[in-house]
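User: Small ask, check this?
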Amino acid sequence: MKRIIVYTMLIICSLLFVAPLFWAVTTAVKSPAELYLFPPKWIPSVWKFSNFTDAWTIQPFNLFLKNTVIVTLMSTLGQLISCTLVAYGFARFQFKGRDLLFLIVLATMMIPWEVTMIPQYMEFNYLGWINTLKPLIVPSWFGSAYFIFLLRQFILTLPRELDEAATIDGANKLAILVRVIVPLMGPSLILVGVFQIMSCWNDYLGPLIFLNDQSKYTLTLGLSQFKGMFGVDMQSIMAITCLISIPPLAVFFFAQRYIVGGIAGTGIKG
């Protein structure tokens, strides 16, 4: 009986989360006549799947998709490389002020991006990077405090005997990282990659600030083009929202077991 009650409550709670997604999908395939009915009609009389192709071709979403993929892949690659190097340094190297420097790195997580937004804009404007994809890519190659922390904690769980054995075989520090440490960091690297992909794919404020030309827009900015001064194309918004939600959902679905393993492997130690 207790199990039945628990399952019932879980089903009810899950419906609360599924309902907005179901409403978005059904709205995307509704006809204009059924869009603003009251009370709302959850199941459309006619499923207009042509709304997806119409919405995708109204704006140059193929170009927006290309820009988004470039930003996402380059930013993710930058985070993986830079954060791995920095985390390895904090976890394996002994130098004066290491712990203090690590605390300073962690302290940057308490500074919201809105505080550094204007200084970053001024810096990128001075470099001539405004209205290019560089402001969305280059900062990722300097690491993220959160990802550095996650990877450092995982490296600390690896026995130093592995490093010593590789050193005896003649490997230098970089070779130890590439041949010994990185192959063992699979779940944590996948975790960082998934988090970064989600962040870049759904980023709206960054492209809004740094991009002016429509040819440089990402998918999130392209989605905002359906909001006019005198109205909102709700069908197109929902259709594009459903389409651009597919890649993040697919990434999370296939990587969820690695995400759990990556989080479990970054326990606090040392």
Remarks:
- The CA atoms of residues 89 and 95 lie 10 Å apart.
- DSSP finds 14 helices and no strands in the chain.
- The radius of gyration is 23 Å.
